[in-house]
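Section 4.2 – Deliverable D4.2 (structural model, holo form)

The reporting period included a commitment to supply a predicted holo structure for the target in complex with nicotinamide-adenine-dinucleotide. Inputs used:
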Amino acid sequence: MPNILDGKKLAQEIELILKQTIESGLKACKRPPGLAVIRVGNDPASGVYVSYKEKACHRVGVRSFSHHLKEDISEKELIEIIKVLNLDQNVDGILLQLPLPPHLDESILLGSIAPDKDADGLHPLNLGKLIKGEKGPRSCTPAGVMALLERNKIKIEGKKAVVVGRSILVGKPMALMLESANATVTVAHSKTEDLPSLTRQADLLVVAAGKPHLIGGIHVKENSVVIDVGIHRLPCDKNDLSGSKKFKLCGDVKTLEIEDKVASFSPVPGGVGPMTVTMLLANTVDRWQEHCGLPLTISHLLP
Ligand code: NAD
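Output (structure tokens):
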């Protein structure tokens, strides 16, 4: 059986470090770290993710400031709210939950968050820092993948890595982080021809295509490491005649086809998902330490 990369367990371990870091820093700082979470409209999946994030804040001692805004808010109004949060001394991190309604320009809004309160690491300045290998808030999902690899002592240097997906949220920063860790990285995307022959070369395959069950046995190399970033809520078994509208979570990878072939893989659920939330907290606590003039003791958690 392959080694399961357990994100839930690692997330709990890192949360404990963050909780202790906050407790000891409170003596000098006198206020807890603050994370403002902005949600626009009523997208149900966003509602679930925001509630996970707020619960996680509560567990470690980060104060969360919730801003649930109406679907038809104008870009100008939203920028004004972000500007107020940029100046709020109790707020160390600002998260704009994506996706946004189509009338709002994601890039303008992410760019209006103060770079040193960018809890999701998606501000252009912080993406630039990532390219240059400078410290800064990091995109949470790829940062979570790096932590998972490191914790499981998976060698990256010199390995061939393939990242499937080139979004700003996951694929691109993932490729940059792996390259910084000295992997030789190839990025595949929706126009890539003959995906299986490319992914079969990968010692380390990270899949973030957002396509349920895209990757199967024919895509993976024997004894490789596979990280499944995709998350999909699919209706349960069609044979379930109970009429219930139950859902199950699955990823971009057909687990049953790869599990006897690979050396390690991250499951869905319980792999990358919990790590994403934890790295959001890590970015926020790191910003808090900086804003309070405390020693930056957890920046090693951010790749
Ligand atoms: P996206 O739609 O922005 O990007 C998907 C990328 O995959 C694109 O670059 C596209 O070119 C590529 N792609 C699509 N179909 C492909 C194919 N057939 N072959 C090769 N490449 C293909 O999505 P995203 O925001 O990057 O998210 C990707 C997945 O990761 C989604 O399922 C999302 O829900 C999930 N996600 C999970 C977490 C987490 O915490 N686990 C966080 C963020 C995103």
